Each structure stands twice: as C-alpha cells, then as structure tokens.
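Appendix B, Record 12. Input sequence as logged:
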Amino acid sequence: MLKKGHPCGENKWQIMRVGVDFRIKCLGCSRQVWLARRDFEKRVKKILQCNENNE
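Logged structural output:
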C-alpha cells in the first residue's frame, strides 16, 4: 500500500520485481510502474501481505 493513491482510485499495488528498481502493478487498473528503490521506500505506507516465493 502506497501513501498516495493511483489516479484510478486504488492505492494497493503488487510488487512484480525487486532490485535496484521496483516494478509494481496497480491492483485496480493493472498499470505497471517502475520506481527507484529510494523512491519506493519513501512512498510505501505498509506491506499488506508478504509472499516469500516471489521475492
């Protein structure tokens, strides 16, 4: 969950890729966004579920 919501109205995201950059997907409209690790860590509000198989 990010602090600021997506323009589609959803603020929950699925983490698709972790590394220097994060690829996240909006759970409302399925739009994918790349964020630098520094930006992602500033914008994240809380982690709702941890799926260790994909991380």
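Residues 39 and 45 are 12 Å apart (CA to CA).
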